[in-house]
Amino acid sequence: MKYVICIILHFVCNKINFTGEWQLKKYENGIAIYTRSLENSPYKELKSVVKLQTTLSSVVSILTDWTSYPEWVYRCGESSTLKKTGATDWIHYQTVVAPWPVDSRDFVVRVRLNQDPESKIVKIISESIPDYIPKTEDKVRIREFRASWTLTPINGEVEVVYELMVNPGGYVPAWLINLAVVDGPYETTRNLMDRIKNTKHREAKFPYIKD
Known about the structure:
Layout: H1 2-8, E1 23-28, E2 31-36, E3 45-52, H2 56-63, H3 69-72, E4 76-86, E5 89-96, E6 104-115, E7 122-128, E8 139-141, E9 144-154, E10 157-167, H4 174-179, H5 183-195, H6 199-202
Parallel strand pairs: 6-8
Antiparallel strand pairs: 1-2, 2-3, 3-10, 4-5, 5-6, 6-7, 7-9, 9-10
């Protein structure tokens, strides 16, 4: 049961208010995982922070390579682009593989990428559009979430911050989710660190990203 909770927490709920300070839950291999409480939700918000010796384009290359997600995102079963609505705007579909007897999940999001021309900070924000395609009978559709990646260049490195929270839908006790919010995001971030070493991503360039 613990493992499905980690990946279900892949995105952040809309319209939520913060009530607590960030609390460090794990620091290992340069990866910091934090959680904090929310006013109108039984679930906790999660933040992961890591610094990578790479370029903004390299990280963007990995994060927008949707079809590769099953190779490195924890318990990702299927990942695909349903529609590309602009150079930095996508409709994305993803499934979450859950162990029996928990039902697997899926979600549909609109993803927007933008870069501040002065600071060069890149933000990638995903917002729920759950009714974009019909739901399937064998999966619970995640309807409420919001996620953000913030990529900040700092002295030749890139600080990667991921913030997320989700209402997974169906029946999964909030206390059980909150017990396991660290493991999945930590493993995903660790895999991201390894993936940066791939030549395909190290040499990536985009017309809309200024390194």
